[in-house]
Known about the structure:
By secondary structure, the protein is an alpha+beta fold.
Amino acid sequence: MIRPKKSRLISSFSEWFDSVLRKAEVYDYGRYPVKGMGVWLPYGFQIRKKIIEKIRDLLDETSHEEVLFPLLIPDWMLKKEGEHIRGFEDEVYWITHGGLEELDQKLALRPTSETIITYYESLWYQSYRQLPKKLYQIVSMFRYETKATRALIRLREVTTFKEAHTLHENYYDAERQAREAIEIYKEFFDTLKIPYLISKRPDWDKFAGALYTIAFDTLLPDGKTLQIGTVHHLGQSFPKAFNFKIQLKDGSYDHPWQTSYGISDRVLATLIAIHGDDNGLVLPPSIAPLQVVVVPIIPSNKGIKGDVNKYAIVIVDELNKNGIKVKLDDREDMTPGEKYYYWDSKGVPLRIEIGEREFRENTATIVRRDTLEKRVVNREGLIEEVKVTMKMISQNLYDTAWENMKKRIHRVDTPEEAKQLLNKKEGIVEIPWCGREECALKIMDSIDAKSLGTPWPSEKINGGKCPICGRHAVTVMRYARQY
Ligand code: A5A
Ligand code: ZN
């Protein structure tokens, strides 16, 4: 499939990204005196709402129940689980005062909600009969990030944190739940046409308090990966810390098992970064707040201005009746060219131009946002054409994005080859691995990249050797420069 120019320089990805957010009026970032926080603007808010609707539907359909826990977590509660707090302590915002009074108990702005949810679960559930329990909330969370903050990608206030927390009788039920979560996220990213690589994070990089973490990473145009979602098998560590047991089928008591999984504003960042081009956003039709914009081109022959406008209105009505989200842009103080620029930057999938010729010939000119292709179609076939073209746009976005990612995943034998590729911003490398932490750490060091983990589902390889110690490789380890 053809795509319009993507001339944006790789080195200026972040400038391009910020300018698209601004131009499309998605998110106002970088002008607030508190770092890592921004404003969702009306248009961005609509896209955000669409994305939330999708994930909410997916979670509801799989019997997750939406809830809302308090934002503030007392000091002692956040610190209950030792590994968890060690992982998060340098990222927590603390509230120490109420008015003029110093609080006797510091309160944390939630950096995530395992502790507060386990606390309540221990009050609510006593028996295996009440399990499994799958809860989720869509809330703001706060992390005092020390790495460079960046609009939507690394925030200190994450405003669209969709965190699920589940509770189970045994290890295997929790493991099955983690697999269900992975399927849900796959479907979610598929609807957004976002490609992903699923890896089991190495032990040294799992979520603080988890048994293991499965992560979704995607590749941004500048060759760096971004973690866009994570699924954790939490084991029993939080229930143990909260002294929380349930009665099992055989009458005995044991700590229940948990999973948690979450996605954030990064999803929208990825959508923009991966599909966008020099003209701005390119939105998949299923997410676009507006799918079609109709622009009447006022003819120089003023006599038929009314007719052209009427013709455009009839077309808008018909699209509307067919369930297509459409808008007539009949602003008088803008030229058609200015309108094209405006809607292109907002990523509206299709534009229909209606001028004198279209009116006289009973046609419409449709322009695809993804390829910028222009075509004249007959009036009678227009609705069908719009529907088919939207499907083609979705497919094209999906195919192009996956292709772009896949061709930048390289399996190599040595750190030297890996480093060369990474220096050329060539994405992700996979290197045979013996399974020992020290070898992976040495490779990370020598290629100046971080480990993403091993393929999930797990992949055995035949014949490879660990380039550090020379032992037989049991799998491959993935590395990339990361956000
Ligand atoms: N309670 C679990 C689910 C949890 O908090 N997991 S997590 O720490 O891995 O975060 C879930 C997801 O939120 C991450 O995979 C990442 O995509 C996103 N995320 C984390 N910190 C972020 C930040 N500062 N800005 C934007 N997104 C962030
Ligand atoms: Zn080794």
